[in-house]
Every structure is written in C-alpha cells, then in structure tokens.
Design a protein that fits this description.
Layout lengths: L20 H14 L5 H51 L5 H72 L5 H64 L2 H37 L3 H7 L5 H8 L5 H14 L3 H15 L12 H13 L1 H17 L8 H4 L4 H20 L7 H17 L4 H19 L13 H19 L15 H18 L13 H18 L1 H10 L6 H11 L17
Helix pairs in contact: 1-4, 2-3, 2-4, 3-4, 7-8, 7-19, 8-10, 8-18, 9-14, 11-13, 11-16, 13-16, 14-15, 15-16, 16-17
C-alpha cells in the first residue's frame, strides 16, 4: 500500500552542527561587537564640549557688559560735545577760551565717533565669531555625537536579537544569517559614526583654542589702536591732519558719487534707446498715406486679419490709432464727390477702421447683441416674409414678428449709448465734423454707416466670426439675421425698401419711417465727444516686447513682397526708409520668403 503524500517531518540537527563557516565568522564578529564599550576619551571629550559651551556663554555675557560700558561712555562723550558746543556759542569770538575750546571740540567729537564705531565693529565681530563657532562647529559636533548614540542603540538592538536567536533550541540558518549581517553592518556604522564624532569634536576644540581666541586677540589689538590713536590726537593737538583726511574722504565720496551718476546716466540712456528702438518703425506705420500698413496687409495672405490686428495694437499703444482714423476721414471726405460712396470701398483705411472698432467694441458688442442673436438662432421659425420661400406660412404674421424682433435689436442699440466706447464717440465726432462742411444732409447717414455698416450689421450677419456664437449657424437661422440686418441698415441710411428689388420688404417701410428720428437722435448723442481717456488695446510694454518683434519678423520675412507692393502702388518713397529702419533694428532669425514667380508655359 502506497503512502499518501503529506508534509515531511522536519529533521532536527544538533545546534553545533548547523553552523557553517560564514556563521562562525559572524558569530566571532558579534562577540567582538558585544564586548565593545564606550572609550573613556570620548566621555572626556564630551565634558570638554560642555565646558566649551559654558565658556562661550560667559564670553557672550562679558561682551554684552562691555557693550553697555562703551555705549555709556559714548553717550557721555556726546553729552560733553553738546555742552561744549553750547558753551562756546555763549562766549564771544575774541575770547581765548573760546578759541581753545573750538580747537578741542572736533578732537572730542572725533574720539567719540571712533569709540562708537569700534563698539559697533566689536559687537559685530564677536557675535559673528560666536555664532560661527556654535553653528559651524559646536552644533555639528552635537549632531555627530547624537548620530553615534543612535548607531550605538541600533547595534545594541541587533546584538540582543542575535543573542536571543543563539539561546533558542532550534536555529533557522537564513534568519540567523540575516540577523548576523544586520549586526555586522550596525557595528560598521557605529564605528564610522564614532570616528566622525571624534574628528568633529577635535575640530571644535581646535577652533576654540585657535580661531576663536585669535579673533578675540585681534579685537583687543584694534581696541588698543583705537585708544592709542585718540590719545595721540589729543596729545599732539594735530587737528589739521584729521581735517585733511576728512577733506580727502569727502572728495573721494564726491568722485564716487559722480562716477555712479555718470554710470547710471549711461545705463538709462542705453535702456531708453533699447525701449525706443521700434519708434522709427511705428512712425513709418503711422504715415499719412498708410503705405506700409497697406503693403503689409495685402501681402499677408490668409494672415491679413491677424497682421492688421497686430498693427492696430501697436498704433493704439502709441496713441496713434485715432489720429490716423481722423486723418483718413478728412482725406476720404475731401476726395469723395458723393456722400453715398463714403467709406463704401475696401481701402486700407476702411479695413483699419473696421478692425479697430471690432477690437475695441468686443465687450460692448457682447453686452448689446449676444442674447438677442442667440434668441433668434434658438427660435428661427416664423421670420420668412418672402412668399416664394415661406412654404405656405403666413407672411403677414411673420412680418409682424420680424418687426417686433428688429425693434428689440434697435432698442438695445439705442439704449446702449452710455456703454458705448469712448473711441466710437470720438470717431463719430470726426465724421460729423467733416461731413457738416461738405455734405450737411448726410451727417446722420455717415455716422450710421460707421456704427451700423461697419460694426453692428456685420456682427448680426455673421455672429460666429465675431465670437458671439460657437459653431456653424444653420441656414434657417441665418435667414432672420439677414432680414434684421437689412432693416437696421435701411433705418441707419434713412432709406425705404423699393418695390423692384425686394418687394416682400415693403411692409417694413412704415416701421422704418417711425424709427428714423429715434436713430438720428442716437447718432447725435454718439457724435458728442467724451472727455474720458481710454485704455489702449495693449500695454506699451506688451507691444514693445511681443507685437513689435512679431511684426518686425513678418516684415523681414515678406520684405520682397512688400517692396513689390509699394512699387505697384507707386509708393517707392517708403522703400528706402523701411530698409534703413530694418537695418538699424538688426538681423532677426527668420527665413526670408522668396517671391514666387509664375513659370512660363512652354
């Protein structure tokens, strides 16, 4: 019958047969560690450290006492000088005593000053020496001793663990090996920490016996020299020597101050030149004909809007945007023969004005239009008034709804006059001022073309491009926005819908006639200039450190295209100043984009 598999019975081996050669070696090491005691010289050194601490404490007390004594002596000397001054002033100028006292007066004053100065020097020196000795030597010695004590405790613990295992009836070789190894390495760490602690204590005692006492001796020598110098001055009465030294020190101080002032002045000039390095480029950008701005814009490609925004931030930071817009308005009105074509083109000045109003009026546009536009997008049904597109809807009902919604838009615009940006009011004032002289009947329509044609209506037509909504707008939701924009634009222009082009909008004419007066009052209020200043779109520091370097790199990158554009628009006079400014600014790490020329077909 086969035996069932089961746990094997553990064989016991006599204690003396379980030890291998390594175990015996560890056991021998353990006995050596166990018998080790704290050496007597370490205990003696510990007592010396305590005596050193006591000595330092006594020295600090003596320094504080000496400090009080010197302070009292200095106060007494100052009082003597003050009393002597008052006494001399009470005597007549011809009195011999007054002359003698006047000679001794600066000597006493100098002695008191030297004494108080030495007192401060002694105080700093002694405190520094004491703190250095405690922080750099005594405290590390204490820490090293504590570390040795910890290692000693660790050795005792591992020793007791091995001793306990040796007294057991059965010994596990693996556990015994681990315990003996821990004991062995604890012994090594204890010995290393003991040696380090002993060396640290020796260094501390050496510093106490030499360096610290050397500092005390140097202070005593300086104190002796201070009193000896003062005694020599009083004994020889050589006041003129001190006067000469003071004059030399004064001249040296004046020279140092002059050199510091000159160095600071040159540094300020360098910093100012660095800050103003882009000013010539800004002046080129703000030229009357906007030649450089136009060349940069037309050669920017898909980055045109971004580049134009950068230019506007730069000009606005230098407070040049509104003056440029004013100048372009004057030039546009002068060359325009009909008010209906004013600012209807897509010139650089028109783009600049549109982009500027878009950037400065962003928050104003959100507050005024966002909720109304979102309401139309969320509920786009019931606005179609063209019977050919209504799909059988009641166009009369839809017209009433369109008029009601347009009224909400118009009221929101008219009631926002108090929130209107200062820049808008300034531009409207420029328009009214110029139009009154040449086209007095078109004053309101010119302001309306600015605020409606260039600001509100584009945002209503394409709210996603102005950040008013997210995502793509459904064509069904776009339709009512188009109709509302047309109605608002006709109100701003004072025009009625005709019967040929859009006959389905004819019912809107009565509403337009009712609101023309309201809108004209809004235009009049908008054209009243404000005395309030405005914050630029971007700070001067930000423009100087970010926008201007970016534009500089872009100009260098597209330099060939820009110069070709200037030649094409007969603005060659701008090329040489531009190259001069770019040369003064230095090189930039960009690759100049070559002009791509069309290949001729063979």
């Amino acid at each position: 019958m086969s035996k069932l598999p089961g746990r094997k019975k553990k064989k016991t081996t006599p204690k003396n047969l379980e030890w291998t050669g390594l175990n015996k070696s560890l056991a021998t090491t353990f006995q050596t560690v166990k018998s080790k005691d704290v050496p007597p010289e370490f205990e003696t050194a510990t007592k010396k450290v305590k005596e050193l601490q006591s000595l330092l404490n006594d020295m600090q007390k003596q320094c504080r006492s000496y400090d009080k004594t010197v302070q009292a002596f200095g106060n007494a000397g100052t009082a003597v000088v003050s009393n002597m001054t008052e006494f001399v002033e009470s005597l007549s100028e011809t009195d011999i005593l007054a002359t003698l006292l006047s000679e001794f007066h600066p000597l006493i004053q100098g002695f008191v000053t030297n004494l108080l100065a030495f007192k401060e020097h002694m105080k700093v020196k002694l405190h520094a020496s004491t703190d250095t000795l405690i922080n750099e030597h005594v405290s590390p010695a204490r820490i090293s001793r504590k570390r040795w004590e910890d290692c000693r405790v660790e050795l005792d613990v591992t020793t007791r663990r091995v001793d306990s295992m040796l007294r057991s009836t059965s010994i596990d070789p693996v556990r015994m090996f681990v315990a003996m190894s821990q004991c062995h390495f604890s012994n090594i760490r204890e010995k290393q920490s003991f040696d380090f602690s002993t060396d640290s204590l020796g260094d501390t005692l050496w510093i106490r016996d030499f360096s610290y006492l050397r500092d005390i001796a140097e202070l005593l020598i300086q104190m002796h020299e201070c009193f000896l110098k003062s005694y020599t001055i009083f004994y020889n009465k050589e006041a003129f020597r001190e006067s000469i030294k003071e004059q030399i020190a004064l001249k040296r101080e004046q020279m140092e101050n002059r050199l510091q002032f000159r160095a600071q002045e040159r540094q300020n000039e360098t910093e100012q030149a660095f800050e103003d390095r882009y000013v010539p480029l800004v002046l080129l950008l703000s030229s009357d004909d906007l030649a450089l701005v136009n060349a940069i814009s037309v050669t920017a490609g898909s980055e045109q809007e971004q580049i134009l925004g950068t230019v506007i931030k730069i000009l606005d930071a230098y407070k040049k945007t509104l003056p440029i817009i004013e100048l372009t308005i004057v030039q546009e009105v002068e060359k325009t023969t009909s008010s209906s074509t004013l600012f209807r083109g897509n010139s650089c000045a028109t783009k600049l004005m549109s982009q500027f109003t878009k950037m400065t009026g962003k928050d104003y546009l959100f507050e005024t239009m966002q909720d109304l536009i979102q309401e139309v997008i969320d509920n786009p049904a019931g606005y179609e008034v063209d019977e050919t597109k209504s799909g059988g809807e009641n166009v009369e009902h839809n017209m009433n709804k369109l008029i009601e919604t347009t009224t909400k838009f118009l009221d929101a615009i008219v009631n926002s006059i108090d929130r209107c940006p200062v820049q808008f009011k300034t531009i409207a004032n420029y328009l009214r001022t110029e139009m009154v002289n040449k086209f007095p009947d078109a004053v309101h329509t010119s302001v309306g073309g600015f605020i409606f044609l260039r600001f509100f209506c584009p945002a209503i037509l394409a709210p996603e491009s102005h950040g008013l909504v997210e995502g793509v707008i459904d064509p069904m939701a776009r339709r009512p926005l188009i109709l509302i924009s047309k109605a608002l634009q006709n109100i701003a222009n004072g025009l009625l819908f005709g019967g040929k082009k859009e006959p389905f909008m004819l019912p809107m004419n009565e509403f337009i006639q009712e609101k023309i007066t309201v809108v004209e009052d809004f235009f009049d209020q908008l054209a009243v200039p404000s005395d309030d200043d405005y914050d630029p779109l971007c700070s001067y520091d930000s423009v100087r450190n970010n926008e201007l370097p970016k534009l500089h790199k872009k100009i260098v990158q597209n330099l060939e295209k820009i110069t070709n554009s200037l030649n094409m628009y007969h603005q060659e006079d701008m090329i040489l100043p531009l190259c001069t400014v770019l040369g003064d600014l230095g090189e930039v790490n960009v690759e100049i984009e070559p002009l791509q020329r069309k290949k001729k077909k063979k």
